Amino acid sequence: MSETQPDSVVRTYIDTHRTAFLDDLAEWLRIPSVSAQPEHAGDVRRSAEWLAAKLKETGFPVTEIWPTPGAPAVFAEWPSEDPSAPTVLVYGHHDVQPAALADGWHTEPFEPVVRDGRMYGRGAADDKGQVFFHTLGVRAHLAATGAAAPAVHLKLLIEGEEESGSPNFRALVEERAERLAADVVIVSDTGMWSETTPTVCTGMRGVADCEIDFHGPDQDIHSGAFGGAVPNPATAAARLVAALHDEDGRVTIPGFYDGIAELSDAERALIAELPFDEAEWLRTAKSHAAAGEAGYSTLERVWARPTAEVNGIGGGYQGPGGKTIVPASAHLKLSFRLVSGQEPYEVEAAVRDWVAARVPAGIRHSIVFGAPTRPCLTPLDHPALQSVVRAMGRAFGQRVRFTREGGSGPAADLQDVLEAPVLFLGISVPSDGWHSPNEKVELDLLLKGVETTAYLWGDLAEHWKPATA
Amino acid sequence: MSETQPDSVVRTYIDTHRTAFLDDLAEWLRIPSVSAQPEHAGDVRRSAEWLAAKLKETGFPVTEIWPTPGAPAVFAEWPSEDPSAPTVLVYGHHDVQPAALADGWHTEPFEPVVRDGRMYGRGAADDKGQVFFHTLGVRAHLAATGAAAPAVHLKLLIEGEEESGSPNFRALVEERAERLAADVVIVSDTGMWSETTPTVCTGMRGVADCEIDFHGPDQDIHSGAFGGAVPNPATAAARLVAALHDEDGRVTIPGFYDGIAELSDAERALIAELPFDEAEWLRTAKSHAAAGEAGYSTLERVWARPTAEVNGIGGGYQGPGGKTIVPASAHLKLSFRLVSGQEPYEVEAAVRDWVAARVPAGIRHSIVFGAPTRPCLTPLDHPALQSVVRAMGRAFGQRVRFTREGGSGPAADLQDVLEAPVLFLGISVPSDGWHSPNEKVELDLLLKGVETTAYLWGDLAEHWKPATA
Ligand SMILES: [Zn+2]
Ligand SMILES: [Zn+2]
Q1: How many CA atoms lie within 13 A of A425 on its CB side?
Q2: Widest Cα–Cα separation across chain B
Q3: Which GO molecular function annotation, any one, does this entry have (chains A, B) (predicted)?
Q4: B contacts of A313 (beta carbons < 8 Å)
Q5: Domain B4-204+375-463 in CATH: superfamily?
Q6: What Å distances lie between residue A166 and A14, A36, A112, B166, CA to CA?
């Protein structure tokens, strides 16, 4: 169906447009679209308008700014001339983390500079750079095919509140589900293993979190007069935490692991072949030992295994010195990372039952769950994933390996609401400094991102005929 | 050696002097000697001066104000004419808890009023009333014996910082140990079981407390990226707390119970014969269940058994909502109530060893102990205790039973430094509202306190010849 796309045409096109492309990105990076800071609300709107205009200039026949109760998202659409082509929805975000020179930046965070083959500036990698490679990518794709429209129905949804926890994102997706309908979602807001090891991320963990309050005496009471003869809510909280895991580091809550497929030998082999250096990983984790579920490597633990983690615990007197009380209350914040096969609401029910059964007489408790995020996992044999791997392999001239992410993201909302598989296509590397001072993007990798998408749309259209098409 | 003291003489003397005695007490209660509030420092000094003057007027040939780096103590001494008589040191305090009408007092806390046979006012029971009964008591004793000096060498030490944790008390006692030397210490800063059940307290628990800090990652790290693969210091803290007790509620720290004599059948019988109502006790404890070491009653647990209690726990995020982190650190405040036979510094060493052995790899910890307070226990067969019981029995016309206190107090410093047994003589009842609004003292019981001491000195001199005398 699609034309062949000789790699040399793509590369020449990218080389020719490289300077203008980087100048445009720098212009976008100058807009401090910090969604978490109300004084930048106008900048976030300006960023959306800038992007919509740039996408129109790129050739997208439909570009819209979608308001939300918070910051606006940008939607763009460029239908293929082939009605039976797959529909692809690209996800990214145009808002950025806060940044100030005083935080340790060597140059102004919103005055991008190119130095040593890198562009420094807030948002260079997370996520403006990775959104922006799609603009030159689709033009290079058209240059190679000679067609007037991409080989796939291309949609972009670039939200404006990701760095603020995407508070309005799911509602937006639900409200606009028909416009967003797609056969596959491609998330460009992740990274690769390293500069020299191109990888594609195949999954993110989900997360369910809860707060548990424990109430013992009606007020703090004297531990001399009453200690040793009444139940202590801080002890109850601590015992619950201690009981979360067995000696092998496995979560003890009945049913917690239900539905999870064990890692296959093939999956474990793919993880094991990555050049992992545990000492270096521990430095990144600012931690002093690796520890976790027995029988799994560190990467397996963070990418492919669910967890129960204490994010916060408090109860009784925490000021200077001592205070001899039995505290009136204690509080826990727990979060559970979830992997494919786990149903968040079933995990929630299991946790509630398990907690209720373990709180001792004389202690009342309450437990409140936040909205969960489902895990995403791209099947390794999914044809769209194969296209991404081939396109990336062509761009990088290297074998592409597989990673996952331990974290959780709004991609899961797209997967849920649109009922479409989620793929990840990111070219950022760990040294890019997301959320840190001196964030940068490697220009070579950025242009590899352009090149990957230039190959991707044709490959997808050629190799995949989704059932719905 | 001593004269007989016909009870009728004592009672007549008390009746005759009752009004002046109560007027004097009311005058003292008008001085707001709140040691915890710097703006009342002058009042605490005034209270000491008032008491010293009153003791001089009572007849004590020696009255001194002993300065400390904080609030002053009052010392008074009245030697017996018999050089071989026992030396008794009475302990109490002249400072009071803070109080304000707005806290729920029906009348001004420092404007004492007599109503329904009670005197209301801050310090009425804790501890001015109980210090003050010793003044009329010794006069009534002299009235009955016709002697010019008490039958025992009588010393009083009335400190001014008890409600602020007695920060300078031990140093004062060490510095003045020769002046304070005594065969027995009588602490008048406790209470009785109830209005209708006169009791004498025979012991207080000691206490050792510590803070433990746990350090994991060098900063809070993302629980998505790293959770499940590094040790969590909040989990380490919780596991330590959970491991403190076994399923029978016994403390698991090796050596913790070393040196403790089991409660004898006689001691258990004395506790069991008290009219204990667990439901009412739970209301006082503002708690919703009794729980503790298996094999012991509630009273045995709080009076006669050591404990390990969590006074505070903290770590990670404790604000509103959730935060998906592995926290950098966690903190515990533990206290251990100690009973006779336990050596605080041995308990401290046992706790240190036990904690160090349980902190997992990758978590650093530090542990700091405060200055411990030793337990006090009066042997039931001590002749001075027998005198107190007889004197109280004569005053109350009832059998006197035995209690203990679960708390810990500066009495232990007197026991330690002066190497003298500590007895407790208090007439306050639980409804007196120590540290609460509308503190009061029952006038009938207050005068029974006067009467008890009127009998006590003669009984002591008659029945006890300490080895040192
Ligand atoms: Zn991002
Ligand atoms: Zn007191």
Answers
A1: 37
A2: 86
A3: metal ion binding
A4: 234, 237-238, 313-316, 318, 330
A5: Zn peptidases (3.40.630.10)
A6: 33, 11, 26, 55
With CB atoms and an 8 Å threshold, state whether B217 touches A241. Answer: no
Across the interface, of A226, A244, A312, the residue whose CB is closest to B285 is A226
Cβ partners under 8 Å of residue A381, min gap 6: none
Pairing of strands A113-115, A118-120: antiparallel
> A123 alpha carbon to ligand 1 midpoint, in Å?
8
Nearest-Cα distance to chain A for B158, in Å, is 23
Please judge whether B223 and A293 are an interchain contact, meaning their C-beta atoms are less than 8 angstroms apart: no
Question: What separation in Å is there between the alpha carbon of A126 and the centre of ligand 1?
Answer: 5
Q: Using CB atoms, which residue from B228, B293, B370 is nearest to A307?
A: B228
pLDDT string in tens for chain A (469-residue length): 344 557 899 999 999 999 999 999 999 999 999 999 999 999 999 999 999 999 999 999 999 999 999 999 999 999 999 999 999 999 999 999 999 999 999 999 999 999 999 999 999 999 999 999 999 999 999 999 999 999 999 999 999 999 998 999 999 999 999 999 999 999 999 999 999 999 999 999 999 999 999 999 999 999 999 999 999 999 999 999 999 999 999 999 999 999 999 999 999 999 999 999 999 999 999 999 999 999 999 999 999 999 999 999 999 999 988 888 999 999 999 999 999 999 999 999 999 999 999 999 999 999 999 989 999 999 999 999 999 999 999 999 999 999 999 998 888 899 999 999 999 999 999 999 998 999 999 999 999 999 999 999 999 999 998 875 4
Question: What are the φ/ψ torsions at residue A454 (nearest 5 degrees)?
Answer: -60, -35
- DSSP conformation class of A164: G
Do the beta carbons of residue B14 and residue B144 sit within 8 Å? no
Give A118→chain B minimum CA distance, Å: 25
CA distance A214 to chain B (A): 13
> What radius of gyration do chain B's Cα atoms show?
25
Q: Do B229 and A302 touch (CB under 8 A)?
A: yes
Cβ burial, residue B8 (10 Å; 0-12/13-18/19+): exposed
Residue of A nearest to B248 (CA): A228
Within chain B, which residue ranges are assigned CATH 3.40.630.10?
A: 4-204+375-463
Rounded distance from Cα B162 to ligand 2 centre (Å): 7
The CATH code for residues B206-260+306-369 is 3.30.70.360
Min Cα separation B246/chain A (Å) = 11
Predicted complex ipTM: 0.90
Answer whether A311 sits within 8 Å of B327, measured CB to CB: yes
Residue ranges, comma separated, of all CATH 3.30.70.360 domains in chain A are 206-260+306-369
Q: CB-side exposure of B261: number of CA atoms within 13 Å?
A: 9
Spacing, Cα B262 to ligand 1 middle (Å): 64
Q: CA of A70 to nearest chain B CA: how many angstroms apart?
A: 19
Q: Spell out the residues 6+ positions from residue B346 whose beta carbon is closer than 8 angstroms to its own.
A: B255, B258, B259
> Cα separation of A398 and A194, whole Å?
13
- Between the CA of A187 and the centroid of ligand 1 the distance, in Å, is 10
d(Cα B432, Cα B441) in Å, to the nearest integer?
A: 6
CB contact under 8 A, A242 and B243: yes
Closest CB to B287 among A217, A289, A290: A217
Enter the pTM of the model: 0.90
Q: What does the alpha-carbon distance between residue B158 and residue B93 come to, in Å, rounded to a whole number?
A: 5
Tokens linked to A373 = 């995020």
CB contact under 8 A, B238 and A235: no
